[in-house]
Amino acid sequence: MSWTEIPTGLIFCLGGVLALLLPQVPRKLLLLALPLLAAWQLLQVPDGATIEAPLFGVTLQLLRLDGLSAVWAFAFCAAALIGAVYQAHVRNRYEDAALAIYAGAAIGAVLAGDLLTLFVWWEITAVTSVVLVVAPGTETAIRAGMRYLLVQIASGVLLLGGIVVHWRLGDGIAFDALDASTTAGLLILLAFGIKAAFPLLGAWLSDAYPAANPTGTVVLSAFTTKMAIYALARAFPGTEVLIVLGAVMVLASLAYAIMEDDIRRMLAHSLNSQLGFMVVAVGIGTELAISAAAAQAVAHILYKGLMFMVAGAVIVHTGTGQASALGGLARRMPLTFAFCIAGVLAMSSPLFAGYAGKALVTSAADKVHWLLWLVLMAGAAGAFAVPGLKLVHGLFLAKDATPVAEGRPVPANMPVAMVLATLASLAIGLFPDRFYALMPYPVSYDPNTVSHLLSTAVMLAIGAIFYAMLRKTVYWRGADLRPLPESDWFYRHGLQDIWRQVQDWAAETSGALTGGLKRWVLAIIGTAGRLGGPAGLLGKTVTPGAGVFWLTAMLGLYLLIFLA
Amino acid sequence: MTPELQLQLAVLLPLAGMIGIALAGRSPNLRETVTFIIAIANAVNVWTLVPKVVAGARPEVVLFTIMPGLDLKFALEPLGMMFAAVAATLWIVNSIYSVGYMRGNKEVRQTRFYACFALSIAAALGIAFAGNLLTLFIFYEILTLSTYPLVVHKETDEARRGGRTYLGILIATSIGLQLPAIIWTWNLTGTLDFAPGGTLAGKVQGISAGVLLALYMYGIGKAALMPIHKWLPAAMVAPTPVSALLHAVAVVKAGVFTVIKVIVYVFGLDLISSEPSTNWLVYAACITLTLASLIAMRQDNLKRRLAYSTVSQLSYVILGAALGTAMGVVGAGLHIVMHAAGKITLFFCAGAIYVALHKTEISDMKGIGRIMPVTMACFAIGALSVIGLPPLGGSWSKMLLMVGAADAGFQIVIGVLILSSLLNVAYLLPIPLHGFLYRPAGAPEGPVAIKEAPLPCLIAIVITASLCVVLFFTAGQIVEFLQPIATPVAPAG
């Protein structure tokens, strides 16, 4: 057995277990070596090769390297490397092991040739990534982690349920195109949809990612959602409902990002919005569109990672992540400021990766309907305003917040990781044709045409105007940003609070009816206090049991909407 | 050695061990040596039977004839072989654990403890190899009686109360429901033998099939189908090694093993899958497995939470059998193995926490992951296996149960299993999560001092936790091994 016959994900898993036992320095070296080792191994695996194993009367395909899976596998190797550099200063063996196994599981999942193998890696990403979420060890992080875990495992078991139904109907377990209109297909689509943060199903993203350590967020931002995009591209290309869902993601998540003060949460919403681009592309499903989704996924891993790294450096330095408390950081953190600009450029400007990706997506969308093109352009313009200009201007240039106390130095490995991401993103932007040649389907496309450059210029201008307008309205000094309610409200608070409220009201009303005027007054004061007080409607936490209940209720609702 | 002889030896060895342990009672070291020698010899004996079963051997041996047509006999088939192998293997691990636990806790009357333990194992192996319903019934009762002294081991009022519930429910259901069911079966078919494809096919139908099934299912109280489950939480007053091997493995698995045996070899899968009046069992199992999880969520005592979790997991096995499909039954058999490894790990950890820190309530366990990292890591592995997450054994048995449900056309069951996995997450994973992430209450600043349970406990925990991982990769072989029990009915795959 040659070493190209070992599933790549397994190499990471063994490395991760080893990392648990090693002391700091060798562990960090191992973490850096693993992605390189995996990439080197994958380079030696011939295109189209598979590793097969029999189980329960079917054949598993532990590895399938083809055009589509290769893009994601190599992108994940790069992300694992950048993540390892970025968290090189963190002295936590659990986080290191989780990074290795989590990255490996994501790579294993995209290389899976059958649905059972996919399921196995799918669940392993859930269990290992939660370690990164809860790593800060705070009450908030632990609670967010528990919710995150429940949602992620819900995705996994739905996937398993869908696989089993699909398999026993005689359709085999091959991980290829599926039909979303069957029960099995629907269950699998839901499972993918949870991890791809579809509307209403994706609240876990902005709930959990900002709870992690600054380094953990960077790692988290790369894998789970892009793995889900791969799964969608593999199983549901051309499923039209995805176009609508993707468009909703692009615009709705943008609104959430605008109304968010926590910079990492804002970036998480923005990440969700950018995922919409890929979901739209998968929904279009032409060869050009699938290549576009792949290109956008790669670009997105780089520029969104870069932005999260900038946010992480800011948080390490200043100790806060609230945009309203920050300002004028450019002088204190010139290097980070430069990377922030690079990140924003990488997202939307020519000569960078994001442009190469987005140009492809918008072209594919334009072939479907001009309205879709318009939605995507609006989304891109909005993303340039928030988080783009909001980071560059609001955090680093504008001086409208009282400066926070002199900060801690940013560890040297952080800028190194940012350099890596910037260079990779620049390389893609400078040589788009070579980049496109790596995509799953041959793309002969030149993003640097006059019309594209022109429309991009207009888009950026609109974004800038939009940001200026936001400065005058929601972002004026002292404005109180109220985050918009999200769908996880249903399982975090929702009907259980309403029910409790109804019970209280009922008790008070019946008391008031028998107790005269004084009781009435007390009842009104009591109700007002309960609604507005710290224990009011939006201030409570939830038990895991109730969480499960509401999660299930929401999934049921989703099923109903889809089947109707 | 002939397989027939080996069958008898499997029951006689632990019995001989019991006598040896009683004789060596004055010297604890000698007594434990006897336990180990017997446990290892027994496991070797049982495991050497496995290749013979794989090769197709189905040895039978009549011990003696009560009256013509009514024998006391042993017969070997894959399901019993698997159960015997699980019990025999885990007996060794459990003995390692017991040494650490009983000595670490300075328990009294350890000789009685080890002797009764050996007797219980003999009874469990008797059940595994039973060749007909009568033999099975006799060993079933021996198992109940031989575990009673273990349950009341502490001899406190609480222990006696628990023991009364334990004995009362198990004896009452077996004499009151199971025995009539056996007599009814004899009346219908004229035989008590286990036969591939079942003996009741064509002999009973309609409502009486449903009633007969109900007599069996509620008569086999050890399978803890609600509302006959109260004895299991009551039995948690026993020392933890007892809870671990007997109330997570030998006793409860004897219950669900009997359930599978009755459904596969007495009713037959054809009868179960074609007779609508037996469908109630699917729903009863679904209700039990969901309700028990919900109850488990509200338990603060760790062993009680695990006990309700066991009730829930036992119903997975019953469910798999009740579906009446080949994959369902194989999945049920596989789940016996997977759950045994996972749950024994969890109980071992609960006991280790008790020995090292004298904590029993989950709300007191915040931060113990920092004091007992190995124990808590293994707890997490066991918990993930019980939930059914890869790369641990439990994931495959849950998947096969889903497959069985899909084959039987009970798609709703898949939904129940999905929900149940989430419930399992909600009541099991907060324990290691809180254990690792919080600081222990009252701990001084700086690194927390590590204080694990005695080494033998730790060794046992690591072995069973590793087993959960190993089983993930060997599930395919176990399924192949079990396949023949369902093949007379429908080709699997």
- Global outline of chain B: globular
Largest sheet of chain A: 2 strands, antiparallel
Let me know the average pLDDT of chain B.
89
For the largest interface, the chains and their residue counts are: A-B, 42 and 41 residues
**Cα end-to-end separation of chain B:** 36 Å
Task: Return the structural class of chain A.
Answer: mainly alpha
Give the amount of beta strand of chain B, in percent.
under 5%
N-to-C order of helices and strands of chain B:
HHEEHHHHHHHHHHHHHHHHH
The ordered string of helix (H) and strand (E) elements of chain A is HHEEHHHHHHHHHHHHHHHHHHHH
General shape of chain A:
globular
Strand segment count of chain B: 2
Uncertain residue segments of chain A: none
Radius of gyration of chain B: 21 Å
Fraction of residues in helix of chain B: over 70%
Query: For the report, how would you describe the main beta sheet of chain B?
Result: 2 strands, antiparallel
Provide structural commentary.
The complex is a heterodimer of chains A (564) and B (493). Chain A has 564 residues and is mainly α. Chain A has helices at residues 8-21, 24-44, 67-86, 93-111, 115-134, 139-171, 183-195, 203-208, 214-222, 224-235, 241-258, 263-284, 287-318, 334-348, 353-366, 370-397, 413-430, 432-437, 450-472, 489-492, 494-532, 544-563; strands at 50-55, 58-64. Chain A has a two-stranded antiparallel ribbon with strand order 1-2. In chain A, a hairpin with a 2-residue loop joins strand 1 (50-55) and strand 2. Chain B contains 19 helices and 2 strands. A two-stranded antiparallel sheet of chain B has the order 1-2. In chain B, strand 1 and strand 2 form a beta hairpin. In chain B, helix 4 runs parallel beside helix 9. The longest helix of chain B is centred in the middle third of the chain and has 33 residues, at 157-189. Chains A and B meet through helix 5, helix 6 and helix 22 of A and helix 16, helix 17, helix 18 and helix 19 of B.
